[in-house]
Amino acid sequence: MTANFDEIAKQLQQELKRRAVDPSSPDLPPMPPTDAPPEQQPIEVTHGNNDMPMVIIRHAPSSQEAQVYCYGAAVTSWTTRGEEHFWVSDQNKWQVGGKAIRGGIPICFPQFGPYGDLVQHGFARVSDWRIRSTTVNEDQSVTAVFGLTSESGQEAMAAWPHKFDAEYSVTLSFAGLETRLSVKNTDDKPFSFTCAFHNYFKTSVVEDARVFGFENLKHLNRLDSDKEMAEQEDSGAGVMLTEETDRIYMNAPEELAAFDFATLKVLKIKKTPTLQDATLWNPFGAEGADPGWKNFICIEPACVTKPATLQPGETWVGAQLLGVE
Ligand SMILES: O=P(O)(O)OC[C@H]1O[C@H](O)[C@H](O)[C@@H](O)[C@@H]1O
Predict the structure, then answer these.
(1) DSSP structure string for 79-108
(2) How far is residue 107's CA from residue 59's CA, in Å, rounded to a whole number?
(3) Where does substrate bind (predicted)?
(4) What's the pLDDT score for residue 237?
(5) Is the pLDDT reported for residue 23 higher than 50?
(6) Annotated domain spans of the chain
(7) Is 207 a catalytic site residue?
(8) Would you say 88 and 102 are in contact if contact means Cβ atoms under 8 Å apart?
(9) CB-based contacts of 80: which residues, under 8 Å, 6+ apart?
């Protein structure tokens, strides 16, 4: 913790109190007035690849940084002491509309995969989210909040005739990176949805990764018509990927971990019980796979096998906390 960061945090809090960020504003909130250069501020509202609006979040006391694009509210980078933990495809076009950003954490909502009438993985990842607020919290964690509502009239949502207000907050703290999705039913009739945090964790090579937490669980094998597969024996060595894998583990525990044998890095995932499933995916060079497939493993806390249902006025919250050792 540096005195400099304290000062920036204080100034930012004062500034945020002074002005309310208008959630419906199509413009990016202005930078907080501080003497420090933007690249040292806890929150930097800026532009990324292809000039797309994005937010950089910094937690200086733990040397963490995250980048979140407004398009898809996609987290595309999370570093601790300069080390990157997410894989992002070299093939991305970085264009608003049509294709989702591949890599980081795409949000699958209100539909996971092809299970429904919407586009694969729903519209959240191909929608423009608005920045609602940026805050340095009392415990020095730093949060950026993004919003998406049915009122925004984006084309990708047209096939989903429900009124909703979705809020996505991304926080860096001593505990790591937290992403939190809240969905409120603002309609006068109930609706159901499925969702996932589609984490693309960076691996040295995917064969070096071992995943812990899935032992003895049943899963649906998406490569075999979602056939329910028998329990796996717990060998104590974790689950290893040696071929194309696309599974949905049901009733996955609240804590999962991925270990990389080459770097000896452990990634820990904590998830809320509202995300009762977790998927495991790597295409292993199958036709159409991204050429970078060797360097990621997708472990995705998800609500798929038991869709969430919201009555009018109700709110659903699902969150994950990612930590690294
Ligand atoms: O190519 P995308 O639409 O981004 O989907 C990528 C992958 O997402 C999930 O992990 C699914 O379980 C996979 O079946 C799918 O291939």
Answers:
(1) EETTEE-B-B-TT----SSSSPPPBSB-EE
(2) 23
(3) 102, 120, 125
(4) 84
(5) no
(6) 3-324
(7) no
(8) yes
(9) 62, 63, 64, 324
| In contact, 325 and 266? CB cutoff 8 Å | yes
Give every CB contact of residue 45 below 8 A, 6+ residues apart in sequence.
28, 29, 30, 31, 53, 55, 131, 134
169 lines ligand 1 (CB under 6 A): no
Residue 56 token pair: 């950089």
Question: In Å, what is the CA distance from 96 to each residue of 70, 72, 136?
Answer: 10, 9, 29
Residue with tokens 């919250």: 317
Name the class of domain 3-324.
Answer: mainly beta
Q: Do residues 250 and 305 make contact, with C-beta atoms less than 8 angstroms apart? A: yes
Using the mean position of ligand 1's atoms as its centre, give its distance from the Cα of residue 298 in Å: 9
Would you say 209 and 259 are in contact if contact means Cβ atoms under 8 Å apart? yes
56-60, 237-241, 274-278 — which is least confidently predicted?
Answer: 237-241
Enumerate the H helices of the chain as residue ranges: 3-18
pTM for the model stands at 0.89
C-beta separation of 105 from 90 below 8 A: no
Dihedral sign for Cα 131, 173, 18, 10, please. Answer: negative
CA of 113 to the centre of ligand 1 (A): 6
